[in-house]
Design brief:
The complex is a heterodimer of chains A (about 325) and B (about 475).
Chain A (H helix, E strand, L loop, with lengths): L5 H7 L4 H26 L4 E2 L13 E5 L3 H12 L11 E6 L15 H13 L4 E4 L7 H8 L1 H7 L3 E2 L7 E4 L11 E3 H4 L3 E5 L1 E5 L3 E3 L1 H4 L15 H12 L3 E10 L12 E10 L2 H11 L8 H8 L12 E5 L1
Parallel strand pairs in A: 1-6, 2-13, 3-4, 3-8, 4-5, 8-11, 9-11
Antiparallel strand pairs in A: 2-12, 6-7, 9-10, 11-12
Helix pairs in contact in A: 3-4, 4-6, 9-11
Chain B lengths: L2 H23 L4 H5 L9 H13 L2 H6 L1 H9 L13 H14 L5 H4 L1 H32 L5 H13 L9 H13 L7 H6 L1 H10 L5 E4 L7 H5 L21 H5 L5 E4 L3 H9 L6 H6 L6 H13 L2 H7 L14 H7 L5 H5 L5 E3 L12 E3 L12 H5 L10 H6 L4 E4 L5 H5 L5 H5 L7 E8 L2 E8 L9 H5 L8 E4 L1
Classes of the chains: A alpha/beta (about 325), B mainly alpha (about 475).
Chain lengths: ~325, ~475
């Protein structure tokens, strides 16, 4: 007998009603099973109403350090604030969120100064942190941004975890009030940490005027970030309320004054040699805005944050200490 | 113990893995293309390969060639049949050479290293990474392994796996081309190497005169080697076609008498080989079925001029695609590009994609930029650095930043600030030019200042990041045109 190939066997078989129903049943069943399995594996969705924090107060409302060395300035400023032990508990997980958005060198002042990040990592480990995570959702290619900003190298040397966030590892944001950010995916690592330290760089931004700490929080959002730009003030204020950063350290060592947020021209960079530390993101942003000769309330997200009562934007009422190193 | 066969298998595996490893890193891929005489005849390493072939024969095909290794793996169960047509590979080589003189480069169609490199870069590595990635995600998500497996996964991603999972358009065409080549083993073992491979043809032309030769003592004519030879190089009278032997060493261990040996000729023979050799006449060569005669060669020359039509096809290609940075002349680019896929593999944003028929048939598998998949990274010149033939010129970063790939245009009917008076300017924010090629223009709408973007054509480099990040769907409001 001639050996039939699989194709021939398939052709030669007659289809009866019974066989047809059986085939349909099998294929439908396997489809259902398949989708269920796929959902089980990849489709789990979690949502959260935001981080729970104790709102730790420092010794002052805001500490401003001026000096030459960004590392020493950061250390001194945090010490004056009451020390890192106040904010980081023993065996806790810390997230440091710098701005690593662009494939630029530290001199071009588009990313947070690596020494500021390095100082914070050192202090966190000294205060007894178990692990320090560092990440940002970058605008350019992640690997190149991490490398060229110099942050990856310094943080790895100090044994912090530097990684790129995964879009599948997100938690959906939930709000108690009506919010345009409802259901927005936020990276899990940003939520599941004991201390959230926000380390933005102060720079020019064409849409909002300035990129400061609240704008920096965009880097913990997954999803289509382009859509965030409409009504950006409200969205960023709600995001700040959702995350509630424990400590904000603004790097104004080098400041990009024009053509932000990416920059690239060394002539646009101004050496301000200032670092601000505060547990209140709104106060910190307001002070930084003042530093750039802008009225804080003219910046949409600070205005919205004040409306939500997230912090104090009135610099005259705050306890501000300036130190020189 | 089949010592030599084992060594050969080890060498094949080693070179295949090395090939994959080099392509994976894509840092020094030129190494492999430099030893390829079909791609770079004048490089030192290619000439070394030719000299080594003159000494030992077609060892490259049996011991080094990664495509040969894959074909061997595919053809483990296949039978070896001899049915001629071996001269086809010389015709293919002839066409390639003639076209090269006409200024058209078609070596990329049939070069085995290029075919393998393209398959590995465009099919194998993306497939491997996505399977590994999904496996990790499945394990981590369904069993809640957030530490330490997750840390390991992140370490892998930041080191070898790469942050991005690559995707290439029309990659199934590359895949099917490769599968056809490997599937030809179902006709006979090493079908590709016997009949089609032009690189094999170059080596065969030299191996005809090679020094190392197969020697049989007291053959009992069991015909085992004749049947088993994977290239069917052994004739029935136990002599062999030297140019077809790839030194796989199977006949040494297959021989029941162990009568087969590969030896260097004795000194006397060596002299006779060079000085007293009676060269076969043209007619004799004609009778030998598998080689190519003078008449054949002339026929080939004449007939290939009929194919000049292809040339006009290549000429007809106009610059309608966004080519990689530094490419100025489309014609020159098509001629220099060997379609190895290195640039597409290295492009950090995955924006370089293979062309299929967009410019003309001549442009198949050349890279072009699709900004909606990935933009050209402003601060990056990797594609020029990895190009083995210089089709994409090597530029330093300062030079690369001045290259204009195209020009961005804004469609005001779709653009959010222009059409809906809402704030957006994502394009302006991402524009990498230090002075911003996208400027904004303030317009007051209902008491609110709305910034409306427009493009400064003199500054725009056409990198396409604006198109990539533009939030409007399905059409982008800003588009880069070449």
């Amino acid at each position: 007998m001639k050996k039939e190939s699989m194709f021939e066997r398939f052709l030669n078989k007659k289809i009866s009603r019974k066989r047809f129903v059986k085939l349909c049943g099998i294929s439908a069943g396997s489809l259902v099973l398949n989708s269920a399995l796929f959902k089980f594996a990849f489709g789990q969705e979690e949502s959260s109403t935001g981080r729970v924090t104790k709102r730790i107060k420092g010794m002052h409302d805001l500490v401003v350090a001026k000096g030459e060395d960004p590392y020493i300035m950061t250390v001194k400023a945090v010490e004056t604030m009451g020390g890192m032990r106040k904010f980081v508990k023993k065996n806790s997980a810390v997230l440091i969120k710098p701005n690593i958005g662009w494939d630029r060198s530290p001199e071009q002042a588009a990313n947070t100064n690596p020494y500021v990040v390095g100082a914070l990592v050192d202090m966190c480990f000294k205060a007894g942190a178990k692990r320090v995570n560092i990440f940002d959702r970058t605008c350019n290619d992640t690997k190149r941004c991490y490398e060229n900003s110099g942050i990856e190298k310094i943080a790895r040397e100090k044994s912090a975890n530097v990684f790129s966030p995964d879009d599948w590892n997100v938690i959906k944001a939930k709000f108690n009030y009506e919010s345009p950010m409802e259901g927005w995916p936020v990276y899990r690592d940003a939520l599941e940490c004991d201390t959230f330290i926000n380390v933005p760089i102060l720079k020019h931004h064409s849409l909002t005027g300035l990129t400061i700490s609240m704008k920096n929080l965009m880097g913990i959002c997954s999803g289509d970030r382009g859509m965030m730009h409409f009504d950006i003030g409200t969205k960023l204020a709600h995001l700040t309320d959702f995350i509630k950063p424990d400590l904000t350290v603004i790097d104004a060592y080098r400041v990009l004054t024009r053509n932000g947020p990416s920059g690239g021209n060394l002539e646009d960079v101004l050496d301000m040699k200032t670092i601000m530390v505060s547990p209140d993101p709104v106060l910190c942003d307001s002070y930084a805005a003042n530093l750039m000769d802008r009225d804080p309330l003219s910046i949409s997200y600070i205005e919205q944050a004040v409306k939500l009562n997230l912090g104090n934007a009135d610099i005259a009422k705050a306890d501000i200490l300036t130190i020189k190193t | 113990m089949k010592k030599l066969v084992l060594i050969r298998r080890f060498s094949q595996t080693l070179f295949l893995l090395l090939f994959i490893y080099i392509l994976w890193l894509t840092t020094n891929t030129a190494v492999f293309f430099k030893i390829d005489p079909l791609v770079s005849i004048f490089s030192f390493s290619a000439l070394t390969m030719l000299v080594l072939t003159f000494i030992a024969g077609r060892f490259f095909c049996g011991w080094i060639c990664p495509l040969g290794a894959i074909i061997d793996i595919c053809g483990i169960k296949a039978k070896s049949r001899d049915f001629g047509f071996r001269q086809v590979k010389y015709y293919i080589l002839g066409f390639i050479v003639i076209f090269a003189f006409l200024g058209i480069q078609i070596a990329w169609i049939f070069d085995p290293l290029v075919i393998t490199a393209r398959f590995i870069s465009l099919n194998f590595i993306p497939f491997f990474t996505i399977v590994l990635d999904k496996l990790f995600i499945f394990l981590i998500k369904s069993f809640n392994f957030y530490t330490p497996l997750y840390d390991f996964y992140r370490l892998l991603k930041s080191s070898i796996l790469g942050v991005k999972i690559y995707y290439f358009q029309h990659s199934f065409i590359t895949l099917s081309f490769f599968i056809i080549i490997c599937g030809l083993v179902s006709i006979t073992k090493r079908f590709w190497c016997r009949i089609l491979c032009p690189l094999g043809a170059i080596y065969a032309l030299i191996a005809k005169f090679s020094i190392l030769r197969r020697h049989v003592d007291k053959c009992m004519h069991c015909m085992k080697c004749n049947v088993d030879c994977r290239m069917s190089a052994i004739k029935e009278d136990s002599s062999y076609r030297k140019e077809e032997c790839i030194l796989c060493m199977d006949c040494i261990y297959g021989c029941p008498d162990r009568a087969t040996k590969f030896t260097w000729p004795a000194k006397k023979n060596l002299q006779s080989k060079f000085f007293l050799i009676s060269r076969p006449t043209g007619r004799e060569i004609c009778k030998a079925k598998d080689s190519i005669s003078r008449g054949d060669f002339l026929f080939l020359m004449a007939s290939s001029f009929l194919l000049l039509g292809f040339k006009s096809m290549a000429d007809g290609a106009k610059k309608r695609l966004i080519r990689p940075p530094g490419v100025t002349s489309e014609r020159e680019f098509l001629n220099k590009c060997i379609r190895c896929g290195n640039c597409m593999k290295i492009c950090p944003t995955n924006g370089l994609q293979p062309v299929i028929f967009e410019p003309s048939l001549a442009g198949i598998w050349t890279p072009h930029l699709i900004p909606e998949i990935g933009y050209c990274e402003y601060n990056c010149n990797l594609c020029g650095n990895v190009c083995p033939t210089g089709a994409i010129p090597k530029l330093n970063l300062a030079q690369k930043k001045e290259q204009k790939l195209g020009l961005a245009y804004i469609d005001k009917n779709i653009c959010i600030p222009w059409s809906q008076n809402k704030e957006c300017i994502v394009c302006e924010e991402h524009c990498p030019v230090p002075t911003k090629a996208i400027k904004t223009y303030d317009e007051v709408f209902e008491g609110k200042k709305i910034k409306k973007p427009y493009v400064d054509a003199s500054l725009c480099v056409g990198c396409g990041i604006c198109q990539n990040k533009c939030p409007t769907r399905p059409l982008r409001a800003i588009k880069v045109q070449p």
